């Protein structure tokens, strides 16, 4: 099957700093790097590297052709990445000595995706394909309507968190993934536990502690421990987890297997600097998993 990802594409600029800046503070970075990023692009690369067929739906400016080329080089179908008159999105990422980050995002072309681009892409989808979305673009409900008509499954990563956006898309969602902070924010907005929202599969990631999966139909709840690693950069770890999990589900693995492998991929990711360019390949993850002592 195929994963269609309506998602962001960013130019990421990374600055290694001794600590995250405080208000009014000027810091000198010790290292600087740039590369491909955006939650959407990260998830597309992760899913492709995990073995899925991935079609990315998005937009870049004329200054971002390199980003489209890099996605293609990583195995992502980019025929539905449009070039628009708005500059490519940018993210400025500060990373401290413990691997924690703070991010400033300029949305740029990510908010200029046209309905016609989404329609053209999803009209190629077939029953059982997956539509993946996040909150760095628009048109989520528009895309979900088309996906439902085509018999697609809908996966949604509730980040960056926006209570209104999440509640609007929830009736469409089959697979919801969010971190523990976002889960608390959603509970505050809805007055319900995320496991009581009627979504078939909900995964809450718990950082270094692991993740928890709840299935609505069978009322099952399972915890998955995360491997212990030395963290250098947490940027993109959640996106790596999501892309890997969906790719493995799409290629026929059980949920438990998919989430265990996704946890390994995310753990390996946090030992590296960078975002999409640093996402591990399937072979990387296999070798990493073989060396783990759980």
From TrEMBL:
It is found in: Cytoplasm. It catalyses: D-ribose + ATP = D-ribose 5-phosphate + ADP + H(+). Substrate binds at residues 10-12, 38-42, 136, 239. Keywords: ATP-binding, Carbohydrate metabolism, Cytoplasm, Kinase, Magnesium, Metal-binding, Nucleotide-binding, Potassium, Transferase. Transmembrane segments: none annotated. Residues 6-281 form the Carbohydrate kinase PfkB domain. ATP binds at residues 179, 205-210, 238-239. Requires a divalent cation, most likely magnesium in vivo, as an electrophilic catalyst to aid phosphoryl group transfer. It is the chelate of the metal and the nucleotide that is the actual substrate. CDD domains: ribokinase (cd01174). GO terms for cellular component: cytoplasm. One of its GO terms (molecular function) is ribokinase activity. Activated by a monovalent cation that binds near, but not in, the active site. The most likely occupant of the site in vivo is potassium. Ion binding induces a conformational change that may alter substrate affinity. One of its GO terms (biological process) is D-ribose catabolic process. The keyword Nucleotide-binding applies. Its main location: cytoplasm. The keyword tRNA processing does not apply. Its EC number is 2.7.1.15. The active site is at residue 239. Its cofactor is Mg(2+). Pathway: Carbohydrate metabolism; D-ribose degradation; D-ribose 5-phosphate from beta-D-ribopyranose: step 2/2. It is an enzyme of class 2 (transferase). Homodimer. Catalyzes the phosphorylation of ribose at O-5 in a reaction requiring ATP and magnesium. The resulting D-ribose-5-phosphate can then be used either for sythesis of nucleotides, histidine, and tryptophan, or as a component of the pentose phosphate pathway. Belongs to the carbohydrate kinase PfkB family. Ribokinase subfamily. This is Ribokinase. It comes from Shimia litoralis. The lineage of its organism: Bacteria, Pseudomonadati, Pseudomonadota, Alphaproteobacteria, Rhodobacterales. The gene is rbsK.
């Amino acid at each position: 099957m195929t994963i269609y990802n309506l998602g962001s594409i960013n130019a990421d600029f990374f600055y290694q700093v001794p600590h995250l800046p405080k208000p009014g503070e000027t810091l000198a970075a010790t290292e600087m790097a740039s590369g491909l990023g955006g939650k959407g692009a990260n998830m597309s690369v992760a899913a492709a590297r995990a073995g899925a067929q991935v079609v990315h739906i998005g937009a870049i400016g004329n200054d971002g052709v390199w980003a489209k080329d890099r996605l293609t080089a990583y195995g992502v179908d980019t025929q539905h990445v449009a070039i628009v008159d708005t500059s490519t999105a940018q993210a400025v990422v500060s990373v401290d000595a413990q691997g924690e980050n703070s991010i400033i995002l300029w949305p740029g072309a990510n908010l200029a995706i046209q309905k016609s681009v989404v329609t053209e892409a999803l009209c190629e989808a077939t029953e059982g394909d997956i539509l993946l979305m996040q909150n760095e673009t628009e048109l989520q409900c528009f895309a979900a309507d088309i996906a439902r008509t085509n018999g697609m499954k809908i996966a949604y990563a509730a980040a960056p968190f926006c209570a209104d956006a999440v509640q609007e898309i929830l009736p469409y969602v089959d697979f919801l993934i969010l971190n523990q902070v976002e889960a608390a924010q959603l509970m505050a907005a809805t007055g319900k536990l995320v496991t009581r929202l009627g979504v078939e599969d909900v995964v809450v990631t718990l950082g270094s502690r692991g993740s928890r999966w709840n299935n609505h139909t069978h009322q099952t709840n399972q915890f998955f421990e995360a491997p212990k690693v030395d963290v250098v950069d947490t940027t993109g770890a959640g996106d790596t987890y999501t892309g890997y999990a969906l790719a493995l589900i799409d290629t026929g693995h059980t949920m438990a297997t998919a989430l265990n492998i996704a946890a390994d991929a995310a753990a390996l990711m946090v030992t590296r600097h960078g975002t999409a360019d640093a996402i591990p390949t399937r072979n990387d993850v296999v070798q990493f998993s073989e060396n783990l002592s759980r």
